[in-house]
Amino acid sequence: MIITIHPQATSEERAHLMSLLCRMTGSQRPISSTQIANREVIALDGGHLDAQAQNLLQQQNAVERVTVVKTPYQLVSRAFKPESTSVVIGKNRDCTSVIVGDTTASPVIMAGPCAVENKEQLMETALAVKEAGAHVLRGGAFKPRTSPYQFQGLGVDGLHLLSDARDETGLPVVTEVMEPEMVEVVAQHADVLQIGARNMQNFPLLNAAGRNSHKRPVLLKRGLSATIDEWLLAAEYIVAAGNPNVILCERGIRSYDPQTRNVLDLTCVPLLQQLTHLPIIVDPSHATGRSELVPVMSRASIAVGASGLIIEVHPDPNTALCDGKQSITPAQLQKIVHESRMLTHMLQGEAALTHVA
Amino acid sequence: MIITIHPQATSEERAHLMSLLCRMTGSQRPISSTQIANREVIALDGGHLDAQAQNLLQQQNAVERVTVVKTPYQLVSRAFKPESTSVVIGKNRDCTSVIVGDTTASPVIMAGPCAVENKEQLMETALAVKEAGAHVLRGGAFKPRTSPYQFQGLGVDGLHLLSDARDETGLPVVTEVMEPEMVEVVAQHADVLQIGARNMQNFPLLNAAGRNSHKRPVLLKRGLSATIDEWLLAAEYIVAAGNPNVILCERGIRSYDPQTRNVLDLTCVPLLQQLTHLPIIVDPSHATGRSELVPVMSRASIAVGASGLIIEVHPDPNTALCDGKQSITPAQLQKIVHESRMLTHMLQGEAALTHVA
Amino acid sequence: MIITIHPQATSEERAHLMSLLCRMTGSQRPISSTQIANREVIALDGGHLDAQAQNLLQQQNAVERVTVVKTPYQLVSRAFKPESTSVVIGKNRDCTSVIVGDTTASPVIMAGPCAVENKEQLMETALAVKEAGAHVLRGGAFKPRTSPYQFQGLGVDGLHLLSDARDETGLPVVTEVMEPEMVEVVAQHADVLQIGARNMQNFPLLNAAGRNSHKRPVLLKRGLSATIDEWLLAAEYIVAAGNPNVILCERGIRSYDPQTRNVLDLTCVPLLQQLTHLPIIVDPSHATGRSELVPVMSRASIAVGASGLIIEVHPDPNTALCDGKQSITPAQLQKIVHESRMLTHMLQGEAALTHVA
Amino acid sequence: MIITIHPQATSEERAHLMSLLCRMTGSQRPISSTQIANREVIALDGGHLDAQAQNLLQQQNAVERVTVVKTPYQLVSRAFKPESTSVVIGKNRDCTSVIVGDTTASPVIMAGPCAVENKEQLMETALAVKEAGAHVLRGGAFKPRTSPYQFQGLGVDGLHLLSDARDETGLPVVTEVMEPEMVEVVAQHADVLQIGARNMQNFPLLNAAGRNSHKRPVLLKRGLSATIDEWLLAAEYIVAAGNPNVILCERGIRSYDPQTRNVLDLTCVPLLQQLTHLPIIVDPSHATGRSELVPVMSRASIAVGASGLIIEVHPDPNTALCDGKQSITPAQLQKIVHESRMLTHMLQGEAALTHVA
């Protein structure tokens, strides 16, 4: 259940509503509100509130509207907010801002190395992906690695290098954050906070990302074997904590065939478009784990309506410190950028025709 | 290991080779050969034959070439036959013949009802899918149903109706065969023998389909949770039994999220194109189980390079005796046909440009 | 919905009921009945029959009882038949008959080689497993193999060898049947018809096994990734076709970790005991694929209440033509037999105490 | 590769070794050592070090032994430490200390409510599980919940209640920690730090738990769809960070059948016993999600050799704030404790006999 606060509510009316809600729900923690679609809203697990209670809430002066949403996720549901959400990256920063989820534009291409290895590698890659037409630079400073003996990333030094790369190229930067106490420092340097597949249900991290003081958008990857509902509820944590700027990222789910690293579940893109207003992008690099499959699966991602791609690019994939097998070259990226534009163009033309007809 | 028989081998030389092979492999069953790419070939599990044995074989007059293929599948591997295979449907029959796997043409669209229900329903659908641009009529006469209490299809009567529909529309017909002893009768009426997901490892059925006297092509669906290797080995059964005309069909694999019936593994299309010379088509209806997702996933299937689609269409999906939830209307099919042509056109244009460059 | 025919119904009353049922259900195929728990019963997908129709049926002279069962499976459900079913193996044959599902006795141990390789190997193994305490001899004459180039079994010759082994040892024999037309010949030689995991949804085979003229029991293995419902519906096919003697066999399900061949789902045993009256045994050999894990997982299978085990045993596992890695020796089998008796004893003692208290 | 430091190494020799290692591995982070089996050891990803390098290391005065371990996990491998590890819980605290992994004793039973709800509920449950024979009290103060609108636990207040319950009952306490910065406060109150399935690859949390200043043991649950290797590498993070006291806990893996919450993979217990020296316990409550299956699956867990069980118990499961459906009553727990002792007794007797023979 979602309560939309009336924009003209007085602070007294607001306080009255809050205390009413606390009594009604027996909540031990303070009721928090969030800003979504130009309104302050409060989401509740309304399962226990009957029609009478809803009625009472609706009559409060502070309440503009009470919306009953039947899915476990509330604020992220399209049932609550029918218009698609556009997430702006790099706003008020020294870079070109980029919109993810703008259905009239070409898909947003995020590209860069798996891990930031050193200044030269990062800068070379950053310039190359910009040249190839990418809109956002990706690169890992903190790397979640299966083994403690694998390269763990450069940490804060990596963040500084990413900042420098933004200054140099004008590309906004997306990078992973792995623990709540690092959210602020990552948010300071990066333009998008990435939450990785292994942390999709790291709830303290989701809350921290939702509350980040820089209001950086969050790129939320799907968990290794997360259901659609679990994924949307993870997004709900972030939005309920105060940050409506969430981008979902499909990156393959675990399956039984070792031929590919994961199984890319492209059907989830149109399915999510029914269920949520949040934009969805695809990571064909982690999904396949094989660079030669990345261009084709990028094309398919655009074909199903993804709002963007996040792709691992390395100037020399064979020498990459991490995930070289799945990294493509800048030249391959350029083709992907070109093809994704053509495909979008074709699909938009078709949609326009359908609309006219 | 594959032995290509010399086209000028005498029957004496041939017999000599066969007896040598029996001795070498200790095989209790007669060595069988098959016709592939205009040559008679014999495939063996060559794991036990050493270099000396290979040498000896190579020196036989009956032998044109000995090819060592490292995958468990042999005849279906691209390592053995680098050129893509085109499968011709409806040859020498009273219908328009159709080529699956012709990379210079538009994708082949197979469409029709899940089950043949009666003459009116089938004829109405057949004419409608033809009108919409489909090339092949699909429809189940024998239906593998999870429960014995569900509609099991019209059986042989259904085959007759399908035959009539071919005569009426000129569309060749694909229909499922579920047991070895029915292969001949199904092959008599249908133009393609479909082997369903639940029968992908029904080895007697694969053998029977491989030996069908009408030389009908086989549409081999991927098993519910089959690996790529298992699937290709199932195809190998058919080809080794004498029928090189196999079309692979991805139809989704089992996974953990009930949101969709299966997970459509589109990555398998470009992956299979590396591993095998056989053409691959996609069934978005069974993969998703939701009609509203079929158009988008059809588009994505063409985008990854599928040679065709097989789609459930029903004039009135709500009244279908089986799988109505995943059936689309003829009008939706028409849009898919149109879109798949445009997309193929775009991709071929691009490929041509790449080739020139 | 299940209709129990009154034991004193006249053939006229019976015929009247049948024609009523055909009208009510609009069934195109004749209504078939089966014998279960000393009664003739007819199962129907009663979803479409309303209370009035049920009432009408109940009033027929030929009807003893109408039972509404809410699961998709009917005859195999415990809701229909609360008492556990005991399946007798080797009745009226020249061997010691064995009861699967007798809760007062020790678990039934079925053991033998993966494949029948030759007379010596089979006889040696048969005598050894008998000596070790096994009750039933297993061995494959027809082998479903992933690759056409793997050893496919001795076929009918293997059946003869199994028959001889029964004569020699007095152990009844279980062996796999892979196609409907072989059911009768396999049923002639074997005492239990095994339907393998890959054929769990081979519906013509299930029907044929249900109708086998020798009334041999059927051992139905769980499919590679079959749900409990799908498995019970496969059993329902056999029972509905006239054969109530079905033994379910858990043999592991497909998962993502290559460490073991499959994941043994032991929880399904107590779960099935709630849902069905059919007995359940476990195959730890195929489940794990690793002989060193077979003894421990055998013990656990007995601990969860399995009515028996089916285990691959080879006198010399290293030389086995198939699945040597998962075969144990007769000496290891002997320990399993001993331990399973002790464990059953302990659990029965405990149950007795609980009962007294 | 693991380097065991010589116990008599001087600090100069030690420093020399460290700088040699940094040069050899090009490591940017300081080489850390940990205490295991009474020795200081250093684990390295030795993949890049050749025989010559190994030789050089072996010759250092500070080095007692260089061990090459071929699995990606090193310190947790049985190849490195053949003797099983016993983990002591509640040492030097005001409670009865408990040993997990002592093969001569009965399995350790950990029991209590899913979530700490209030003082009365916790105290009542704590006394009841003690009375029933449990050795350790479990209870969640911080609850990882799929939805932000579900009860999230009492937090630090819950920790205080758990501390009080230990004082009252003498049972040591295990509770979950969800973020690195809470490790110290949880370690102050609890006797075992639980890391939940969703956090199995929360690497900062693993590191923090490994470094906790109270040296509390860590109960590491298997991730939702973690492979054995990934799980052992997660344990390796904790051990490599300085804490050798890790208990593995199997709690079911994700699969496709909604009948049970997860699939309990009991085969992993004997498999892990081959691969690691760490003790393994089982959580049948989360694995099945159905209280009626908990007693049977507890018995099976002991049968496969688990060193203990962790079970959800609630005095009144129907009113539980979380996971009531999977909670058993204290009376049911008592039977499980009794049965697990009898079964262990039987298995130890048998093992003794085998040993004598």
N- and C-termini, Cα separation of chain A: 38 Å
Q: How many helices of chain A does DSSP assign?
A: 11
CATH architecture of the largest domain in chain A: Alpha-Beta Barrel
Number of strands of chain A: 14
CATH topology type of the largest domain in chain A = TIM Barrel
Order of strands, widest sheet of chain A: 7-8-9-10-11-12-13-14
Helix content of chain A: 25-40%
Alpha-carbon Rg of chain A, integer: 21 Å
Q: Biggest sheet of chain A, in brief? A: 8 strands, parallel, barrel
What structural class do you assign from the helix and strand content of chain A?
alpha/beta
User: Which residues of chain A form runs of ≥5 with pLDDT under 50?
Assistant: none
Provide mean pLDDT of chain A, rounded.
93
The topology string of helices and strands of chain A comes to: EHEEHEEEEHEHEHEHEHEHEHHEH
How much β-strand is present in the residues of chain A?
A: 15-25%
Please name the fourth-level CATH homologous superfamily of the largest domain in chain A: Aldolase class I
CATH class of the largest domain in chain A reads Alpha Beta
- What general outline of chain A do the C-alpha atoms trace? globular
Largest interface: A-D, 39 and 39 residues
Integer count of domains of chain A: 2
What would you call the quaternary organization? Answer: homotetramer
Protein name (chains A, B, C, D): 3-deoxy-7-phosphoheptulonate synthase
Organism (chains A, B, C, D): Reticulibacter mediterranei
Pfam families (chains A, B, C, D): DAHP_synth_1 (PF00793)
Keywords (chains A, B, C, D): Transferase
